[in-house]
Write a structure and sequence with these properties.
The protein has helices at 35-47, 66-73, 90-100, 111-118, 140-143, 185-190, 193-203, 210-218, 250-258, 268-275, 295-307, 311-317, 319-325; strands at residues 6-8, 22-31, 53-62, 82-88, 124-128, 133-135, 152-156, 176-184, 223-225, 232-233, 240-241, 246-247, 280-282. By secondary structure, it is α/β, with parallel strands linked by helices. It has a domain at 6-11 and 22-227: Spore Coat Polysaccharide Biosynthesis Protein SpsA, Chain A (Alpha-Beta Complex). The strands form three sheets. An eight-stranded mixed beta sheet has the order 1-4-3-2-5-8-7-9, sandwiched between helices. Strands 6-13-10 form a three-stranded mixed beta sheet. Strand 3, helix 2 (66-73) and strand 4 form a beta-alpha-beta unit. Helix 7 (193-203) packs across helix 8. The termini are far apart. Residues 1-16, 160-168 and 237-244 have low confidence and may be disordered.
Amino acid sequence: MLNITKLDNAYYNIDINTNDFNHIHLSMGHDKNYILLSLISIASILNTTNKDTFIHFHFVLIDAKFEDMKQIISLKKIYNNVEFIFYNGKQAEYDFSMFGNKEHRGVGDYTKFLIPEIVNNTNKIIILDSADIIAKKDLSEIYFFDLENNYFAFSLGMSAGLNDNIYIFSRNKFYFNIGVCLVNVRLFRKDNLYMAGYFTRQAYNYFPCPTQEMFLLISQYKFKYFPINYNCPEFYKDEIDFISKKYNSSQLKNYLQLQKNSPFRYTLKEIIEAESNQVVSHLFTSKPYQNNANKKNGKIWVNYSKMANIYEILKLKYPQAFKLYDK
């Protein structure tokens, strides 16, 4: 039986009529190593949220300190119509630590399985990556996407055919990216998907992207996929001329060729149109702190570090990135 303790939510002073708002529930789960980087993603979400949207932001954290939580709460200076709720994620560490130590993402990634199990007062929630998400628009559009009677909704993966020899499931067929994932909390609990994930993980020796591939296994094809602009990758962006509609990206060409007969694919038109209408930019192959983002997103990343009041800390931690983008 799960034994989860909410760390603290007694310090929220919400003195507005919350009935006047569209309420959306967002979440992140990670360990202490991603606290700083998550602040940039959180700041971007708050900065792009409409005034008539009220955010309930749930965090499932492993080994977070009270000072870390206070730093997140300080972001209310950007956007006041938000509450931050913190949960203890040690259950995920206890259940999955034997597996997490084998994988480069570590056990913190398994908190994504715990989020739908323990969040309060909602039937659905958006689960977000913590270090490489930049919101470009209000996330209500994603939250009110019709899940119907499915467990998940997500964007299809854009890496079909690439490195598929190291993945359990061939990317030549279909793949998806759960950096932005809408979850049917009611069905997740009803069908006990947390335990399904736990036993699925026991059955396999290694997952390069554990939660991503485990979500695929336990979904039983009860999923829908988003428009690509809900979780827009950036690896192809600098190699497409969006005026002439020409593209030079070998990765994109490979994707379009391999997926041309698949029902689980995006067209070139959809990909190009997504660029001008991004809701979320997902910098999973162009992370600014790893010095390989395009200049536009690198500058956005630096600006949000200032808004989140961590500019000086990150400048010391990632000096090369700030040399590239802080101009």
